[in-house]
Amino acid sequence: MVSQAGSSRPRLKMHRIIQLAVRRWLEQNDLRGKYAQEALELVSKKFPKGTFDNWSTCNDLMVHAESVLQMTATSPAVANLARLNLLRNVAYFHSLSGQYGSAEAR
Questions:
Q1: pLDDT tens for residues 27-70?
Q2: β-sheet bridge partners, residue 12
Q3: Quick check: 5 and 13 in contact, CB under 8 A?
Q4: Is 25 found in the same domain as 39?
């Protein structure tokens, strides 16, 4: 249900049913907010500025950035420096890579 994928850049793949079970468990144990904040801080630290030399990394991390930004969008308590930093870097990447609509939406 959890496997390693990719040879040049190792990644983990998790089956959707496992993802759902983990989400439900986090919600039932009132831990979703805690781990959403931790995920936000980690992704914010790893997501580079969107300059051309970082586009590959930005593309790899974009799905995670969008996910944590969505998870933390409704909580006023997480309007913090990590969230603002991630929003800036994502918007900067979209802008420099010509994705103007996405950049403006951020």
A1: 999 998 889 889 999 999 999 998 899 999 999 999 999 999 98
A2: 4
A3: yes
A4: no
In this structure, are 61 and 85 located in the same domain?
A: yes
3-class state of residue 2 by DSSP: strand
Radius of gyration (C-alpha) of the chain in whole angstroms: 15
Report pTM. Answer: 0.76
- Distance (Å, rounded) from C-alpha 103 to C-alpha 87? 9
Co-location of 16 and 58 in the same domain: no
Find where tokens 């500025």 sit: 49
Is 81's pLDDT higher than 80? yes
Q: Give me the number of domains the chain comprises.
A: 2
- Residue pair 2/15 in contact by the 8 Å Cβ criterion: yes
* Beta carbons within 8 Å of 37's beta carbon, 6+ residues apart: 72, 78
